[in-house]
Amino acid sequence: MDIPPLASKTTAMSLGALPVSYALNHVSVLSQPLCVVLMSALILGLLFMAIYSLSHGEITYDPLYAVFVIFSFTSVVDLIIALQEDGYVMGFMDFYTKEGEPYLRTAHGIFICYWDGTVHYLLYLAMAGAIRKRKRYRNLGLYWLGSFAMSLLVFLPGNILGKYSSEIRPAFFLTILYMLVPCWAGVRIFSQSRTPTSYTPDMVQEEQKKGLLQRPADLTLIIYLILAAFFALFRGLVVLDCPTDACFIYIYQYEPYLRDPVAYPKLQMLMYLFYALPFYCLAAYALTFPGCSWLPDWALVFAGAIGQAQFSHMGASMHLRTPFTYRVPEDTWTTFFLSNMLFALGPHLLAFRCLWRPAFFLQAPPWASEGPGKKQQ
Questions:
Q1: How far, in Å, CA of 314 to CA of 263, rounded?
Q2: Residues in Cβ contact with 140 at an 8 Å cutoff, skipping those fewer than 6 apart
Q3: What phi and psi, each to the nearest 5 degrees, are found at residue 14?
Q4: DSSP SS3 for 360
Q5: What is the rounded CA–CA span in Å between residue 150 and residue 40?
């Protein structure tokens, strides 16, 4: 997979978030929640106008260019928020975390800001650079789509259902508009053509004839997917208050963060139960039987989703903003870290395998299974 060049113009515009956030933090009128959301909408509107006037050709070629540039700006803002909440910088976004989105000050909020300000930021620069150079970015887009969607699907409902539901400000409704973005962007990204492969029909046929014992990497992934599915099922039962001793011991001795009233960890485990668990079962099927052409795309989507989710979950489980009684106990820290790291790593290995040797998942032409004499007739 080719890595597109980063967009220097996008980088310059995104770094404009630094002086803008610093200046706005010293405007006294922004102490009112309604003023915060109006100013935020105004800044995003002005930013879009600037992008449209400076990069009209790129937007005409692919409208997602404007989305990536605007989101790169907000990614820098999120990184500033995370660094400020952890005490590394001061005087930038106090007004927004107090009167805009106070739930960003939670441990979960801080870590989704870190992820957005680093991983998402690099993805935005790479995808914007690909559009400027008229190159493909479908694989990067699918990874971003899964990561972005998972972040919203846990964070937004968690704000409503958790203990910060009384802290919702008008800026929350501006965030809801972000839900429309992955829907539109997903349709456009999935509609892009896939990267062409160099496999001939005979090569595809030869690869798909191999059994699982001849594909030890796939066999290992299937074993992993089965174990990961059971882990997702188990943690889903834990947050659903399963009365068994195993669930009781796990939630109190290994992951007490699942009891945190902020609701983010409970929602995250339910997302694993209802979405990751079925995917793992379907992925194991696709690794067993050839021709499941849908797996490479969805493996990238779920790799992004699980990567973002596990980063936020693991970080919040150990962060100082999480009450001490809900943090991972020191004597079980190794077990917690290894199990959750493996849970995050597996989908990335699956996506890498699908991109590395995709012949097993291609649909071979019907005549590929016929003999040479029949093909010549």
A1: 15
A2: 4, 123, 126, 127, 130
A3: -70, -35
A4: helix
A5: 24
* Contacts by residues 277-281 (CB-CB < 8 Å, ≥ 24 positions apart): 277/229, 277/232, 277/233, 277/236, 280/225, 280/226, 280/228, 280/229, 280/232, 281/225, 281/229
- Which positions ≥6 away from 159 have C-beta within 8 Å? 103, 165, 168, 172
User: What number of other Cβ atoms are within 10 A of residue 249's Cβ?
Assistant: 11
Residue type, 191: S
Burial of residue 23 (number of CB atoms within 10 Å: 0-12, 13-18, 19+): exposed
- Which residues, in sequence order, are CB contacts of 320 under 8 Å at separation 6+? 107
CA distance 187 to 174: 22
Both tokens of residue 81? 């928020």
pLDDT for 230-283, tens place per residue? 999 999 999 999 999 999 999 999 999 999 999 999 999 999 999 999 999 999
* DSSP alpha helix (H) spans, 15-106: 17-24, 33-54, 56-61, 64-85, 94-99
Q: What is the pTM of this model?
A: 0.92
CA distances to 138, 151, 193, 253, 359 from 196, rounded to whole Å, are 12, 31, 8, 49, 11
Going by C-alpha positions, the residue among 183, 59, 57, 77 that lies closest to residue 121 is 77
